[in-house]
C-alpha cells in the first residue's frame, strides 16, 4: 500500500470503502476503470494480517449504519512530529 510509505512515523490514514455485499459485485463490472475488487471488513483484516501487520497497526475497523460502507484506520508506529515551517518561506513566482 503506497500510502504507508509516505506516512510519517505515528501518522495514520483513514479509508472508507463501500461494502460490496450491500452495494454491487465487482466481478460483473466490465467498465475499464471500474472497481475490480470486492471490499469487505474480512478482506481488509486478511490483507492486514498477510501484508500490512509488519509496517502498521490496524487501529480501527467499523461498519457504518445501514452497512453500505465501512472504514478502517492504519497507523504507522512511532511518535508523530508535525511538519515544521521554521526557516520556511513562501516564494512568490517571478512575474515579468
What do you see in this structure?
Helices cover 18% and strands 22% of the residues. It is an alpha+beta fold. The protein has a 3-stranded antiparallel beta sheet, covered by helices on one side. The mean pLDDT is 85. A hairpin with a 5-residue loop joins β2 (57-63) and β3 (69-75). It is built from 2 helices and 3 strands, in the order αβαββ. The chain has a domain at 2-28 and 36-75.
Quick rundown:
This protein is of the alpha+beta class. It has helices spanning 2-6, 41-52; strands spanning 12-18, 57-63, 69-75.
Strand content: 15-25%
Instruction: Sum up the overall morphology in one term.
Output: extended
Number of beta strands: 3
Order of helices and strands: HEHEE
Mean pLDDT: 85
Unreliable residue runs: none
Tally of separate helices = 2
Helix content: 10-25%
Classify the secondary structure makeup into a structural class: alpha+beta
Q: Compute the CA-based radius of gyration.
A: 19 Å
Sheet with the most strands: spatial strand order: 1-3-2
Distance between the termini: 43 Å
Biggest pleated sheet: 3 strands, antiparallel
Amino acid at each position: 500500500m503506497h500510502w504507508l510509505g509516505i506516512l510519517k512515523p505515528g501518522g495514520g490514514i483513514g479509508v472508507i470503502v463501500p461494502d460490496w455485499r450491500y452495494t454491487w459485485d465487482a466481478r460483473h463490472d466490465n467498465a475499464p476503470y471500474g472497481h475490480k475488487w470486492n471490499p469487505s471488513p474480512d478482506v481488509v483484516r486478511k490483507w492486514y494480517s498477510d501484508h500490512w501487520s509488519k509496517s502498521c497497526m490496524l487501529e480501527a475497523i467499523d461498519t457504518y449504519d445501514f452497512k453500505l460502507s465501512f472504514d478502517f484506520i492504519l497507523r504507522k508506529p512511532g511518535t508523530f512530529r508535525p511538519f515544521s515551517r521554521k526557516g520556511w518561506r513562501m516564494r512568490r513566482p517571478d512575474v515579468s
